[in-house]
Amino acid sequence: MTITIIGHGYVGLVTACVFADFGNKVWVIGHTKEKIDKLKKGNPIIYEPGLKELLQKNLKTKRLLFTLQYDHAIKESEIVFIAVGTPSKENGEADLSTVYDVVRNIARFLKKDLTVIACKSTVTVGTNLKIETIIKKHKNKEAKFVIASVPEFLREGTAVNDTLNPDRVVIGSESKKAINLLLKLHQPINGKRVIVNLASAELIKYASNCLLATKISFANFISFYCQKTGANVNHVLEAVGLDKRIGKNFLSPGVGYGGSCLPKDVRALINIGDRLKINTNLIKAVEEINLEAKNNFLKTIIKYAAGKNLAIWGLSFKPETDDIREAPSLHLIQKFLDNGFTIKVYDPVAQNNIKRIFKEMINYAQTPYQTVKNADALVIICEWNEFKEIDLKKVKKLMSKPYIFDGRNIYQPEEMEKLGFKYFSIGK
Ligand code: UGA
Predict the structure, then answer these.
(1) What span, in angstroms and rounded, lies between the C-alpha atoms of 416 and 377?
(2) Are 117 and 135 in contact, with CB atoms under 8 Å apart?
(3) Which residue among 212, 260, 269, 381 is best mutated to probe the pocket of ligand 1, counting the most ligand atoms within 8 A of its Cβ?
(4) 316 marked as binding residue
(5) Could you tell me the distance, in angstroms and rounded to a whole number, from the CA of residue 422 to the centre of ligand 1?
(6) What is the DSSP letter of 186?
(7) What distance in angstroms lies between residue 287's CA and the mean position of ligand 1's atoms?
(8) Is 168 a pocket residue for ligand 1 (Cβ < 6 Å)?
(9) Are 147 and 114 in contact (CB under 8 A)?
(10) What predicted TM-score, i.e. pTM, was given to this entire model?
(11) Bridge partner residues of 228 (DSSP)
């Protein structure tokens, strides 16, 4: 099959590489020459485990083609995926302007043979119908198309594996032809098929991300009780998660959820709900607790840190990615600076992205050990494996005061006490 994917972020690029690897011819359309040139040379631009290898392999077979032009790609393709960003506007609403821009471009080059236009971008309920209207308005008379919503559930850090082994493939469409063609394309991919109407597919995506955010905020909410009652949040939530109706995933408390998806999708669902006059208190609380989780951690550090020299480990919004969009580290670093702390940071891959924001305001180390040298306290914001396997005795020797504030609960309090650390973690 020949397909086109518009957008080369985490969703677009990973999907393109995986479908090309299955033997399809895949066009990827971007809008920045510099980025397309890098991609053509096998540089994925983003850090995602396994992606570079998959990109380079499929560039060699010439099944993966990058371009800035719509004409050839759209004319040749049976399916065109939209996988562009839908960031938050100031009022929380999803900004759909890029989606509508690319849709107008697609419309101009549609051919007589049927094209399926499938939206992977996370879009507000009703957007796909609007896409249909825009295409009808801008296409040639004889061009034929149908639309579908194919929401994406991959996670950064495990995106390649998630694309190959999703729990479900959701296809929302009113067109049998679109459904059949999409089922054919997804044949080599695992996971249950869920065929629904357009609005359901659009809402499945928001419902999924908002329930994940709800679980995390609930875990943090329970951690607040644990902190004040002597209960241990890990023991409490592990036992809670053993109930199969609840499940153990996404119940890790910490400094809150970040990234380019959960925060923006919670805000968008609040916005949609408010417009539909639905009571959105539940997800408003999810968002409030997420901020509270960061601020409680901050308060503990301000209250107990024995000095102003902080070492920080882990800057990306989660491990195995260099993505710092809405990362808890951004909020915390700014607050530490506001409170007069001196900061030295380390992250295995996200360091340069943080440097673009905080520049000379903070210091940068090349290793976790360099970071803690002469520090009054170590703050852990993201749980990279490297930190779990670190030589803690060496860390203690290097620090000027043995204080650790662990925002992701990666160590055992008893062991830390034995090693002589003053160890503060979440909900214990
Ligand atoms: C999320 C969803 O998990 C994906 O299914 C979805 O496809 C994606 O958004 C999207 O909409 O594109 P992602 O943003 O990559 O994926 O990251 P998650 O693994 O969901 O983690 C989000 C945040 O929650 C991270 O900051 C992580 O540290 C935090 N988290 C996660 C916790 O604080 N506790 C947990 O128990 C789990």
Answers:
(1) 14
(2) yes
(3) 212
(4) no
(5) 30
(6) T
(7) 14
(8) no
(9) no
(10) 0.96
(11) none
Count the Cβ atoms, other than its own, within 10 Å of residue 103: 25
* Distance, CA of 155 to CA of 166 (rounded, Å): 10
Q: What structural domains does the chain harbor?
A: 2-196 (3.40.50.720), 230-424 (3.40.50.720)
How far does the centroid of ligand 1 lie from the alpha carbon of residue 274, in Å? 24
pLDDT tens digits, residue range 38-60?
Answer: 999 999 999 999 999 999 999 99
Catalytic residue among 17, 119, 210, 261: 261
Query: Could you tell me which of 36, 39, 107, 116 has the C-alpha nearest to residue 77?
Result: 116
Q: What is the pLDDT of residues 351-366, one digit of tens each?
A: 999 999 999 999 999 9
119 an active-site residue?
no
Task: Say yes or no: CB of residue 212 within 6 Å of ligand 1.
Answer: yes
Average pLDDT over residues 229-240: 97
Note the helical H segments in 230-261.
233-241
324 lines ligand 1 (CB under 6 A): no
Q: In what order do the strands lie in the sheet with 25-29?
A: 64-67, 25-29, 2-6, 79-82, 115-119, 145-149, 168-172, 192-196
- List the structure tokens of 314: 């882990």
Q: Distance from CA of residue 192 to its chain's centroid?
A: 22
